[in-house]
Amino acid sequence: VCRPDEAVDPRVQIELERLNAATDDINKLEVDLDEARASFRQLLYESSIRIDALGKKLGNCVEKARPYYEARITAKEALQETQMAAVRFERANSAHSAAKEMVYLAEEGLCTEGRTFDHAWQEMLNHATMRVNESELERTLSEAEHRRTSRSYQQAEVIVQQLQKELKRSIAKSRPYFEMKAQFNQLLEEQKKKVKQLEIKVSSAKASYAEALHNLEQISDEIHRIRKNHSEMGLGARSAGVGADSPLTPVVLSPDSRNTSATVSSSTNPDTDRWTDSVGSSDSETQEEYLRLPDKLGSSSSPIVPQNVHKDESEQSEYLSLTSLSDNKVKSTSFQYLKNSEEFTAKNSPSSQIQSSQPYQLLNKN
């Protein structure tokens, strides 16, 4: 189906007109052919009835005079063959004379100009000689054919003359019968020729119809192939979507901006799995913080008094009191911190509770 924005190929209109004209011709010629065949059958039927009726009326003279008329038909056919053979002989004789004249001119040109070894003249002479030989062979064959047909015609004519003398009376009586038969035969031949001509015209019209139909199929295939190529080209380049009036330039994000956007997205849209991981990580950080706690306190907060330090009793007692005080504070602070951490971990992870209970027991032992 042609789209509204596409123009119809002018070849389609031409081939359609040819197709319609051929269809009309075929229909008309087939009707004429049927009528001609019907006329031929009707004429053959009428001729048979009338000739048979006349033959019955004339009696035996028709059968007696039949060899004479058959001999006349044979003589007439022999005469036609003789005439055709004579035409072929005359044509071959003329070609032979022209070829001999060409050979004579070629030889005279070679001798006059002294170009005995000229290639063009040699080629012309060879061609003329070949034509002489061919025309001579054709003249010989046509002459023999003319002689044969002439003898046949002479023999047929002799037979006609003999029968005419022998059957003179029967020939005179049966003349109306054979004249009527000759007339009907002539009419039948004319009608037969008309039928053959109409058959040739019908065949030609059908060939024109088939050619126009084939051309239309080729044009249709070509149009479909062009549309397919255009559709494939159109699908190759995608257009902007609905609402995309102005295409935006793509923004390339740096790693920092990607991390920032990921942080914002995680904060705005919290995920349960991520929150669970963060709880587990806080427990591990609590354990690490507890293990690093003695290093943060330093040697001044240690409850063990170094032996190599010799001070007076007042300074030593003050030092011990401060140490015990700081130790109690650290223990209470660590105990409270770890206790809170343990309670928080126990609510979320059993494994974390087991890991955090061991440091608590060690701290109580200390």
UniProtKB/TrEMBL annotation:
InterPro entries: SH3BP5. It holds the Pfam family SH3BP5. Residues 236-316, 344-366 are annotated as: Disordered. Residues 12-46, 146-229 form a coiled coil. Transmembrane segments: none annotated. Residues 349-366 have a biased composition (Low complexity). GO terms for molecular function: guanyl-nucleotide exchange factor activity; protein kinase inhibitor activity. The keyword Coiled coil applies. Residues 256-270 have a biased composition (Polar residues). Keywords: Coiled coil, Guanine-nucleotide releasing factor. Belongs to the SH3BP5 family. This is SH3 domain-binding protein 5-like. It comes from Homalodisca liturata.
